[in-house]
Structure formats: C-alpha cells, structure tokens
Amino acid sequence: MPKGPRLLGVPRLALVSDVYSASGWSLPPARGPEVERLHLEIFGLSMTTRAASPDHFYWSPSHSTDSLPSFFSKTVWRQNQQLPPPLSGYKSVWFSGATPKHAFMVWLTARNRLPARDRLNYWGLNISPFCLLCNDEDESTGHLYFNCGYTIALWTSIFAPSHIT
User: Fold this and answer.
1) pLDDT tens digits, residue range 102-142?
2) Is residue 117 located within the same domain as residue 74?
3) Backbone angles phi and psi of 131, in degrees to 5
4) In terms of residue numbers, what domain contains 28?
C-alpha cells in the first residue's frame, strides 16, 4: 500500500471534495519534506468544476478534460512521488522458503530502515548515539552488522565451526 495518503493525512479513498471547498484546501500540516513538496504541488493546482455538478472536482494526470476520472489520493501520490528504483536482490530475500521474520530483518537492513541509534537521533529522540553493545562508535546499521567488536566476536563464533572467514 502506498505511504503517500497516510503521510498526507488524507484517507486512501478520499475525494477532492473531502479536502477542498470554496474556502480552499483543508489538509493537515506537513510533517516532512516529501509532504511539504506535495503540499506545494497541491496548493498550486487551479481547481475547476463542471457546471452540471458543481460539487464534484476532477483530476486528470494528463491535464486532459476529455476523460475525467475519479480522484484517488493514491493516484496523485504516485503521480507526484519520485520513487527510487526497485531494490535488487528482492527475490533472494523474499522467496517461498524464507522464514518471514528473518526475511523481514534482512529487508529492513538492506533498506537501512532498522531503528539504530543514528536513525533514532535523526527522528528527534534525545539518546546517546554510541553503540549499546560496544560503546566505541556511533550506532548505525553498518556498525551493528560489520564494525561492532561485539558483533565481530559473535560472527566469528558462529562461522568458526564451518571454517568460513
């Protein structure tokens, strides 16, 4: 499910008339740069209606008035969102024999979405940035998996019996 409508604070199946009236747009305040950019796009739109149904607004991604589709905030978000290219390795993580919780953790790690202390600080939590396990360096996903002394010892103990280095 796209995250745009949720970030924008608009119900997924909302109509334009739910968030726009003669007095203007009624959107929750922006909570990030992506939403601020979307607000700028939305507030810059000139709104028009058809005389036969003045209470219905129409939106067309091609700016054509020939076919006036229903409005869905999901469609607007996809139209205005600059999505990153698909992450390679999808099939090697999400395959039919994968253990779901392991695949999920690998996926979060690959997407740099683990709530390590560097991300928690970025989100505004006032906590020490140092690694909870070794207290030597700032905690990040890369540090936790590859640079932390505790983690290196753990990986070594796991792979020592199989002679993998």
Assistant:
1) 999 998 988 888 999 999 999 999 999 999 999 999 999 99
2) no
3) -60, 130
4) 4-80
